[in-house]
Design goal:
The chain is an alpha+beta fold. The chain folds into 3 domains: 2-198, no CATH class; 238-404, Sulfite Oxidase, Chain A, domain 2 (Alpha-Beta Complex); 415-522, Immunoglobulin-like (Sandwich). It has 10 helices and 19 strands. The strands form 4 sheets. Strands 2-1-10-5-6 form a 5-stranded mixed sheet. Strands 3, 4, 7, 8 and 9 form a 5-stranded antiparallel sheet that branches. The chain has a 5-stranded mixed sheet with strand order 12-19-18-14-15, with no helix packed on it. Strand 5 (326-331) and strand 6 form a beta hairpin. Helix 2 (43-54) packs across helix 5 and helix 4 (71-96) packs antiparallel against helix 5 (98-118). The longest helix has 43 residues, at 165-207. The protein binds the ligand Nc1nc2c(c(=O)[nH]1)N[C@H]1C(S)=C(S)[C@@H](COP(=O)(O)O)O[C@H]1N2 and molybdenum atom. Residues 241-247, 289, 291, 331, 333, 335, 365, 378-379, 382-385 line the site of the ligand Nc1nc2c(c(=O)[nH]1)N[C@H]1C(S)=C(S)[C@@H](COP(=O)(O)O)O[C@H]1N2.
């Protein structure tokens, strides 16, 4: 009888502990993984935010008067108490039925998932941390319950020698529960400090007032945008700008800590701070960026107004030595690009950019500082989160992608694209307006021609030219054809009269080429 009640109390304690440890693992792991996703993908953050939004004003005032600026801490402690009570109950339930307890956890996860999705700026991908957390939490519960079960059976077993196998089973259980709690605390702590670094960058970005350019961009001429549904906007909004990089988690740089070092084969090494850039004579330039991985007809191209400091001026101050022919730019996360020195010192607008379309750079596009260089693919020029410029030689240094089978030079190839009609579009009989884009940064576009089926090449009308560094839109009014399948092909002529090549090339190693052909049907 005595043994029975002791065993009963120990059983309650053990299963309660198993519940708490599993919940800790769930939340800790989810908190850590949430660093890679939206802030509100952390279950505690999502639940806390909902709680804050739902708190009636009188309770909010009461909390603030009771806890002052610790009101958020008080909120988290209260949430902790609730989570503790719920998880003890689930642990005790697991003593009766592990399936039922697991079902409760899954049910709770679904509720938390709904809370996460209800936050602004979250998507289904932001359920990943919760999913991984729930999975590890369930495994922890299963594993701890098995050990708790075993040690309980052995207490009831009077033939077991005291202090031997029973003791060691229990010790294993306690060790497992303890390690789960410690692991969960470490995961949550690491997650929290990484999130803090991210929040500093985000807060600094939203507090930043961009300086006015000394040399603003010329106003866009009217007619750069062809008025046709399905055409891309002439200036790509930041949120729609293609993003290509190797960063698994976006670097979070506090601009106060940012520094750019200019060194290597130069007479004067120096470093530049973010403040130096804010105070410098800044320039604005519309420039179309393109990725070398863009296939013929692809979408890895975007046009923005960049605000920055001319890299040419930095290099003038550094004074490159004879023999240097390349600048290796390196990002905070270890990406690097090799840009010909000549391209950075001639009179094109290569910029150390801090602004994109009148906003500080978005974090994913290189906050606080990146490079943008007219006429070169991004992989050899557009280093985001740039922190280091080394003046060197192509013979001495090899950049990130060039060690992985891509070229070390990357001038953008003259390209054109059909945006309307889309591939396999069905158009109705009668007149069809077609449209698209063409680019040859630094040279400009002087003509675009299209060919319907295997007919003659026809001159398209061009939208206005904003600059040689930006793409140019085109359109063609086709009087229509017979119903059935048709194709339209496109090719461009650059500002120097060169015709786009029909030679087909894959993106690797230095950019795709060939004429795009789109199939569509008239019905
Ligand atoms: N730090 C860093 N910068 C980078 C890259 C990268 O992987 N890491 N990718 C480059 C490539 S391949 C391209 S095409 C452009 C894309 O810039 P975007 O993401 O702002 O469009 O960034 C360049 N800068
Ligand atoms: Mo790229």
């Amino acid at each position: 009888m005595k043994i029975k009640s002791f065993s009963r109390r120990q059983g309650l304690f053990d299963f309660g502990l198993a519940g708490v440890s599993s919940a800790a693992v769930l939340f800790g792991v989810a908190h850590l993984v949430s660093v890679f996703f939206a802030t509100a993908s952390a279950p505690l953050v999502a639940m806390g935010s909902i709680f804050i939004d739902m708190t009636p004003p009188w309770l909010k005032d009461l909390a603030i008067s009771l806890f002052g600026t610790n009101d958020k801490l008080a909120l988290f402690i209260s949430m902790g108490i609730v989570v503790f009570l719920v998880s003890v109950s689930i642990g005790l339930l697991a003593k009766k039925s592990r399936v039922l307890a697991s079902g409760c956890i899954i049910l709770l996860a679904i509720v938390i998932g709904a809370a996460i999705l209800s936050r602004p700026a979250t998507s289904f991908a932001d359920l990943t941390p919760l999913t991984i957390g729930t999975f590890t939490g369930l495994l922890t519960l299963r594993w701890l319950c098995t050990w708790a079960e075993k040690s309980r059976e052995q207490i009831g077993d009077s033939t077991a020698k005291p202090g031997t196998s029973q003791g060691s089973t229990r010790r294993k259980f306690l060790l497992g529960a303890g390690l789960s709690l410690i692991g969960a605390a470490i995961a949550a702590g690491v997650g929290q400090s990484l999130a803090a670094a991210r929040n500093i960058a985000e807060a600094a970005r939203s507090a930043l007032g961009l300086p006015i350019a000394k040399t603003p961009a010329a106003a866009l001429p009217s007619g750069v945008q062809i008025d046709l549904s399905g055409m891309p906007p002439f200036v790509t909004p930041n949120k729609d700008f293609y993003r290509i990089d190797t960063a698994l988690s976006v670097p979070r740089i506090n601009p106060d800590d940012w520094e750019l070092r200019i060194h290597g084969m130069v007479e004067n090494e120096f470093t530049v701070s973010f403040n130096d850039l804010l105070e410098a004579e800044l320039v604005e330039n519309y420039l179309t960026l393109t990725c070398v991985s863009n296939p013929v007809g692809g979408q890895l191209v975007g046009n923005a107004k960049w605000l920055g400091y001319p890299i040419r001026k930095l290099l003038e101050r550094a004074v490159p030595q004879a023999g240097a022919d390349m600048v290796l730019s390196t990002s905070q996360d270890g990406f690097s690009a090799s840009t010909p020195l000549e391209v950075l010192t001639d009179d094109r607008m290569s910029l150390l950019a801090i602004g994109m379309n009148d906003e500080p750079l978005p974090l994913e596009h290189g906050f606080p500082v990146r490079m943008v260089v007219p006429g070169l693919y991004g992989f050899v020029s557009a280093t985001k989160w740039v922190v280091d410029l080394e003046v060197t030689r192509f013979a001495d240094k090899v950049a990130y992608w060039s060690t992985r089978g891509w070229s070390d030079h990357g001038p953008i190839k003259l390209s054109s694209r059909v945006d309307v009609p889309r591939s396999f579009a069905k158009v109705s009989e009668g007149q069809v307006v077609m449209g698209g884009t063409a680019w040859a940064q630094t040279k400009g576009i002087s003509g675009v021609q299209i060919q319907i089926d295997d007919g003659e090449w026809l001159d398209a009308e061009l939208g206005s030219e904003a600059s040689l560094d930006t793409w140019r839109q085109w359109r063609y009014v086709w009087e229509g054809g017979t119903s059935g399948n048709h194709t339209v092909s496109v090719r461009a002529i650059d500002g120097q009269g060169k015709l786009q090549t029909s030679d087909k090339a894959e993106p690797a190693p230095n950019g795709a080429s060939g004429w795009q052909r789109v199939q569509f049907s008239v019905e």
